[in-house]
Amino acid sequence: MEKKLCWFQWIALCSFLLAAVVSSKHHGNPANDLVDIINKNRTSQRLRQLNNSPGLGCIALQFAEECKGNCTTNNTLNCHPPEDNFTEVFAPNCGVELPTFGTVSGLILGCQHKYLEPLEAFSQALVRDKNSLSLLSNKTHTEVGVGVIKTRKGSYWCVLFSTSDRNSSFVLEDLGQGIKQKKGCFSGTSTPCSSSGRRKTSVFSDNVFIACFYCILLLQLFYFLLL
To answer: This protein's superkingdom (predicted)?
Structure first.
């Protein structure tokens, strides 16, 4: 019986370690996920996919950062930073080489007083009217960049479009690395971001669920071993 109990304890330890690994798995970059959703929507309309530009994405993140805190009670975002901010503030903050600053041909903003997963953000916060739908399906766009930032009061999304040449516009300094952003996420980079979107409460709930599941499983095994 003692051997059985030792084996049982070993299984329990391995199970909880597995649960910890699963619950701590990083969920990537929601800005890239939104770009994928945008491109799938375009291809479904037989439109060409847009280049995922990290420089444009970083500028979109700066725009979202500038607009945070302005989400209204009905989840709309009315924010108009000065146009000069693009070249005088946003681009330098990202490390975009100014001679490569291209043409920003469209802008979609969205916010929500709770965190939204990318697909929810697309349908509930960003594509809410004919104007945003028209921008999304514009045939002249060549590039897209997405920025998202999460705060205690909600999430803010910014999508920027460009008609510039996709190979030579919004180029980041330092061989494409640019300046490391400490807040939020932007598209075009493979680096996972800290604000990947999962709320702390959601992660906590997942951990509680996993712990309860394994407790029930272990109790059942313990009962079986005592028979």
So the answer is: Eukaryota
Which residues are within 8 A (CB) of 101 and not within 5 positions of it... i.e. 6 or more apart?
86, 87, 91, 169, 170
Q: State the pTM of this model.
A: 0.74
For the chain (length 227 residues), average pLDDT per consecutive 10?
A: 47 41 54 96 95 96 92 87 95 96 95 90 90 93 95 90 90 90 90 54 44 55 57
Cα separation, 31 vs 49, in Å, equals 16
Long-range CB contacts (< 8 A, 24+ apart) of 197-200? 197/27, 197/30, 197/115, 197/116, 197/117, 197/118, 197/148, 197/150, 197/155, 198/27, 198/115, 199/114, 199/115
| Mean model confidence pLDDT for the chain | 80
